[in-house]
Every structure is written in structure tokens, then in C-alpha cells.
Amino acid sequence: MSLPLFPLNAVLFPGCVLDLQIFEARYLDMIGRCMKQGEGFGVVCITEGSEVGNVPEGFSQIGCEALVTDFQQQDNGLLGIRVVGGRRFRVVEAQTQRDNLLLAEVAWLEEPDEKPLQEEDEDLVALLAALAEHPMVAALNMGLTASGQQSLANQLAYLLPFAEEDKIELLEIDDAEERLDAIQDLLDEMQGDMQA
Known about the structure:
This is Lon N-terminal domain-containing protein. By secondary structure, the protein is of the alpha+beta class. The protein has 6 helices and 6 strands.
């Protein structure tokens, strides 16, 4: 499967919402093509280099499909789009096109079935509810309710202020329970750092 890539300083998770401003010609063309064909593009996190200009030197080999749900002309004249995370994928091979757009051969990752929330998830469910009240989070209109462990893990991994490297690692974990455990470990580390 061939997928155009959009390297960003962000990690997108399935079911999560991301607002983007598009101003580079290569991405305006890409978005136009995606919308005409009703297809998505791939968001990968930049590990070396910058978002603007040339292709970044390094980017994560795991990413998330982005599906355009809304678009509008911004006050500053730029195109604003809202995407929702679709399927996770692994980059098999990537090539830079003439217009500097990255095109990748990707392998889709298996999404495990949604498992019901457990008693031990209650603290994390409460944390998600608290995050939902934050104005920046509320503006995303993600409809923050965890339908199960997978959606809880995706939303927390996306919204919590973890380092990009940690988020990439979380995106790689297939099992929702394992991902929730990893999120709890990162939260414990953050708390430890605050108390230190």
C-alpha cells in the first residue's frame, strides 16, 4: 500500500483529532488528492530535522493514517484541516518525490479487538475525564469517552504531555493493556520528577 507521508512534530493515534494548517504547495496538492480520492495520508513523527522546507533527516517508522474530516480557509489565508487518526502502519520503504513529498510503502498493523475497561483502569478513566475539561482539549471535539481499553489508551497517549519518543513507543504497542501499563509508568515517572 502506497501512502503519502506528512512528517510532523507530533504523534497521531487512532480515533484522535488533530488540527493542521497547510501552507506548503506539496501538502496542499497532497490534501487535494486525498480529498478527491476519499483517502487518507500518513502522519509520522519527525525525529531529526524540521517540519518546514525539505524532507526531515529522520522520522519514525511507525505512524498513523490521517483522514480529513473538515477543512476551512483560515483568517491568515492558510488552509486549515481537521483530521482523525485511522489505522496504524509501519513504513516499509519511503521515497522523496520530485515535489519533495514523501511517498511510502506501508504495512498496516493489526488492531486488536476492543477490550472492556477494568476496575484498575478507573484512575486513568478519571484522568481522561479531567483532560476533557481543558479548553484546548475541548476545542478538538474528540468526544472524550473511553469505549474500552484501546480507546482509553489511544486518547491518553495522545493528549498527555509525554515526550515524542515516548509517544512513538506507545503507538508501537499493540496490546491495549500493555499500553495502559506503559502510560501509568510514564505518569509515575512524571510525578516522581515533580516531587524531586
